[in-house]
Amino acid sequence: MTDLHTRSGSACELCTSTDNLSAYAIPPNSDGSTEQSLLICDICEDQINNHDRVDANHWRCLNDSMWSQVPAVQVMAWRMLTRLSAEGWPQDLLDMLYLDEETLAWAKADSVEDDDGVIHKDSNGAVLAAGDTVTLIKDLDVKGTSFTAKRGTAVRNISLVSSNEEHIEGRVNGTQIVILTKFVKRAN
């Protein structure tokens, strides 16, 4: 815990609060080490663990903390931005966030299957995870707009629709749209 206080300057590594701090081992496979843990406040911990209590405005703090050089902070920032991506502004931050391959794999380790047990698969049966890049396999007319999403278009940093295994969300031509999984294939 002393190492976490030293690394963070005795402030929450996500929102910078100095109140009610504790060590948080990042699920699902943390060994409890400093490298796989964060020092976070009780508000952040409560919202991470209780999806129904998430206050999207609290997480605007990720605009700063996502740039941390600490992989554990990057992982939690990516996970929370992915969880909140339907809000609009978190998706913009996700579009800017770069994680190396190892850190991105760690971030995705908790996101292949959501809380409802829904697993999203592309047209070839490959499992999709939040943050993946997919390619459209056919031209799609986008309802409510005047454009067609063309076959071959890459959609980066997708988010999964937790209530429907056939729906994902992503940005095409700057517009957040819902896409049927049968019309995409996961990019390698």
Give the count of structural domains.
2
DSSP E strands, number: 10
Kindly report how far apart the N and C termini lie. Answer: 39 Å
What is the string of helix and strand elements?
HEEHHHHHEEEEEEEE
Unreliably modeled segments:
none
Structural class: alpha+beta
Q: In what order do the strands lie side by side in the largest sheet?
A: 6-3-10
Shape field: elongated
What's the Cα radius of gyration? 17 Å
Largest sheet: 3 strands, antiparallel
Count up the helices. 6
Estimate the helix proportion, in percent. Answer: 25-40%
Q: What is the averaged pLDDT score? A: 87
Question: Percent of residues in beta strands?
Answer: 15-25%
What does it look like?
The protein has 188 residues and is α+β, with helices and mostly antiparallel strands. It has two domains: 2-108, no CATH class; 112-188, Roll (SH3 type barrels), CATH 2.30.30.40. The protein contains six helices and ten strands. It has helices spanning 2-8, 42-49, 62-65, 71-83, 89-96, 101-108, and strands at 21-25, 37-41, 134-136, 140-141, 148-149, 154-155, 159-160, 167-172, 175-180, 184-186. A three-stranded antiparallel beta sheet has the order 6-3-10, with no helix packed on it. Strands 7-8-9 form a three-stranded antiparallel beta sheet, with no helix packed on it. The chain has a two-stranded antiparallel ribbon with strand order 1-2. The longest helix is centred in the middle third of the chain and has 13 residues, at 71-83. The chain is elongated. The model has no long low-confidence stretch (mean pLDDT 87).
